[in-house]
Write a sequence for this structure.
């Protein structure tokens, strides 16, 4: 699939009732008392709900870079929907309820919590996980339970492959890896590239392989292709020393935020004064405050400077609500909630089969992160954002559109 790129400069109505004045007759008092007594005995009418489950890591390093932004994005979406009257199904308003569950940064923890959301909380749809290393096993749980699942940020093809009820909002690893490989050659004029990646995750393996293929296809040469595993200490000096001896023009780090931060600092300590490239797990809001990341480029699903009405409105409301700039995770999770609500309201039902069918039909949903089109696939067609970290700021550098 070819892509074209373009540069970016600067990168329900309520009703009011009038009270009845005058003397209330004794029969009316008796009647009202009887009604109230009956109501008290029977209890309040059960409010109709649409229950959405959210998996978010609220501990360790991912808490601030992924978990909290996920919760904030989902909360803002739910607040927006409920304040507008909820979701109308068969003429009855349904309140959206968000059920958030924390889990540890392990696949078994993610699947266990997902089962709890499905079997105990009786959710209508599942949002998350964000990371492919958790989304892939959780997708099996959701598929077996026939519960619609939307992962905002998992980009591994294994998350949705062969499944009917599992969807994603992010572009695939193959898309962003290919875009960055070509960008390095054509835009940065790099001829020699090194890659340091996490071989223990599907995300790291996929991006590293696709980048290498794309870079070489466009005339570049991979001079170092080094790997590590997540259980290793955050010391990459020996690997970086080997990379440095190959004199690359660029270094590609398709890894998670915690490890990338250590890798970049250690690379600079060893005098690797070259352009560093990354993928959509990079947390641009924290990395822009690291001097060592100056001049780096990354592929992302979204950028807060995206100049659309939906993006501007989301950023303004998020800043007002939480007094901070939203991270990519927040925007993508916000869109996951709004997309599910849109599908449920449009189809007029909230059963799993109807939600699944509605998601497959999505052709033109526009949210804070852009326009999403599934075209009968669980994987969307969407633009790739390339951002640049420069002088303590994150700049929207280029938008690469699908063709």
């Amino acid at each position: 699939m070819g892509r074209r790129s373009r540069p970016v400069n600067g990168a329900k109505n309520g009703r009011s009732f009038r009270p009845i004045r005058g003397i209330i007759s004794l029969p009316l008092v008796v009647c009202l008392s009887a009604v109230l007594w009956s109501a008290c005995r029977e209890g309040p009418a059960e409010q109709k709900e649409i229950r959405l489950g959210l998996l978010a890591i609220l501990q360790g390093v991912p808490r601030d870079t992924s978990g909290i932004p996920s919760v904030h994005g989902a909360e803002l979406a739910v607040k927006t929907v409920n304040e507008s009257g909820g979701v109308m199904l068969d003429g009855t308003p349904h309140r959206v309820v968000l059920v958030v569950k924390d889990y540890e940064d392990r696949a078994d923890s993610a699947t266990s919590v997902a089962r709890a959301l499905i079997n105990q909380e009786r959710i209508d749809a599942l949002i998350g996980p964000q990371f492919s290393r958790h989304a892939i096993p959780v997708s099996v749980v959701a598929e077996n339970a026939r519960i619609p699942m939307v992962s905002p940020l998992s980009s591994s093809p294994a998350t949705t492959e062969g499944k009917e009820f599992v969807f994603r909002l992010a572009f695939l690893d193959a898309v962003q890896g290919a875009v960055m490989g070509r960008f390095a050659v054509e835009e940065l004029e790099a001829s020699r590239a090194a890659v340091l990646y996490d071989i223990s995750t599907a995300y790291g393996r996929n991006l590293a392989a696709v980048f290498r293929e794309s870079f070489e296809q466009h005339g570049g040469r991979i001079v170092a292709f080094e790997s590590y595993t997540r259980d290793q200490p955050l010391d990459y000096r020996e690997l970086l020393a080997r990379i440095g001896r190959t004199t690359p023009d660029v270094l590609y780090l398709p890894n998670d935020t915690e490890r990338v931060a250590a890798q970049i600092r250690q690379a600079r300590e060893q005098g690797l004064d070259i352009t560093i490239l990354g993928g959509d797990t990079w947390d641009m809001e924290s990395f822009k405050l690291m001097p060592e990341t100056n001049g780096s480029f990354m592929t992302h699903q979204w950028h807060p400077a995206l100049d659309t009405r939906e993006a501007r409105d989301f950023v303004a409301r998020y800043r007002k609500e939480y007094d901070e700039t939203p991270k990519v995770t927040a925007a993508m999770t916000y869109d996951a909630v709004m997309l599910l609500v849109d599908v449920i309201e449009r189809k007029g039902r909230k059963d799993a089969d109807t939600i699944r069918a509605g998601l497959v039909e999505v052709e033109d949903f526009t949210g804070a992160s852009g326009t999403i089109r599934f075209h009968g696939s669980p994987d969307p067609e969407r633009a790739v954002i390339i951002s640049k970290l420069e002088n303590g700021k994150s700049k929207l550098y280029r938008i690469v559109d699908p063709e």
Q: What stands out?
A: The longest helix spans residues 62-83.
